[in-house]
Write a structure and sequence with these properties.
With 332 residues, the protein is α+β, with helices and mostly antiparallel strands. Helix content is 19%, strand content 41%. It is built from 7 helices and 24 strands.
Length: 332
């Protein structure tokens, strides 16, 4: 009897944790063929996976029988975070999650009270820094399909330091999950045993399941909250790869055979104002070697408008260090 009581208590507590997390679970409907999950982040905002959203500008979201249209207000492919604003969200809904506020635009015709999103705002689990996660810790991923909410239990497989994605985005922590992942859970909330949202689940390379930390999501949301959109860094140069022979590579002290050359400079751009010239060879960025065009582009993509970077260039055989202030890419 005692064993059965413990098993029932264990089962009840697991079920209660999932039930408490389900208010965050949103189905994101992309046309007729694709449904993925999302996380109700507060107010009228829904977070989901940017890779899956692609270039969509409008989607539908569903939760607890309510289906709403949603505008895709930001897709950050560098961190795989997309931000949706659901029509009929709560205009007064500045949501406080882990100490940061997310405001919604008052007076927006697509924003009004009394919806499922507004009602669920105060009940949603809170976010938590992923630094508290431990390898082997139990987690649950909650998602939603057209058939209803769903959950899968698993464990934290790996916890590592901050890293840069292949697109150059800074991810606050490396989180890998040991779960039997289904595509419908992409964009779902990763919940720890205390009921906190610690990450968003996304597929990674080699069939891994990654967690995009809540802190990374908050950073993207804060940028959108500040600027009204997601500003993209811009310096205004076009790069092309050049190959170095062994003697030149040795002379320059480079490991890579490739080097990034400036193939064009946009008029009036930060690069033009800093006097970067056609044909400059880019050796380093902020003291770290620039080994390839893609690597350099990714590192620039991970900067923020207003930030100043130091580019070490080779011009006419002489090294120069040029400070360039990152601007926001012009919006067309």
């Amino acid at each position: 009897m005692a064993a059965n009581s413990l098993l029932k208590q264990y089962s009840d507590e697991r079920a209660a944790l999932v039930q408490n997390a389900l208010p965050t679970a949103v189905a994101v409907i992309l046309g007729r063929r694709r449904v993925l999950s999302g996380v109700h982040w507060g107010g009228d905002l829904v977070i989901t996976a940017a890779e899956a959203i692609g270039g969509a500008e409008h989607v539908d979201v569903r939760l607890d029988g309510d289906e709403l249209g949603a505008e895709v207000i930001a897709t950050d492919l560098t961190t795989d975070v997309a931000i949706l604003r659901a029509a009929g969200g709560d205009a007064a809904g500045a949501s406080t999650r882990n100490g940061s506020s997310v405001s919604t635009a008052a007076g927006d015709p697509a924003v009004s009270g009394g919806t499922a999103l507004a009602a669920l705002r105060s009940n949603a689990p809170r976010t938590s820094p992923a630094a508290a996660l431990r390898v082997g810790e139990t987690i649950v991923v909650v998602g939603r399909s057209l058939r209803g909410p769903a959950a899968i239990w698993g464990n934290v497989q790996l916890v590592g330091p901050a890293w840069n994605s292949r697109r150059g985005g800074k991810i606050d922590q490396r989180i890998e999950l040991d779960v039997s992942f289904d595509p419908s859970f992409e964009g779902g909330a990763v919940i720890d045993i205390d009921g906190n949202i610690v990450a968003m689940a996304v597929p990674g390379p080699y069939h891994r399941v990654l967690g995009i930390p809540a802190a990374t999501i908050e950073t993207v949301v804060a940028k959108v909250d500040k600027f009204g959109h997601l500003p993209k860094p811009y310096i205004g140069i076009r790069l092309q790869p050049l190959w170095l022979d062994d003697d030149t590579r040795t002379k320059l002290g480079r490991k890579s055979r490739g080097i990034a050359a400036v193939g064009g400079v946009d008029a009036g751009s930060p690069a033009a104002e800093a006097h970067i010239e056609l044909g400059d060879l880019l050796l380093a960025l902020d003291g770290e070697p620039a080994e390839s065009v893609n690597g350099l582009a990714q590192r620039i993509a991970s900067t923020n408008p207003g930030q100043t970077i130091a580019l070490e260039v080779l011009r006419g055989g002489k090294p120069l260090t040029i400070n360039v202030q990152i601007a926001e890419r012009p919006r067309r």
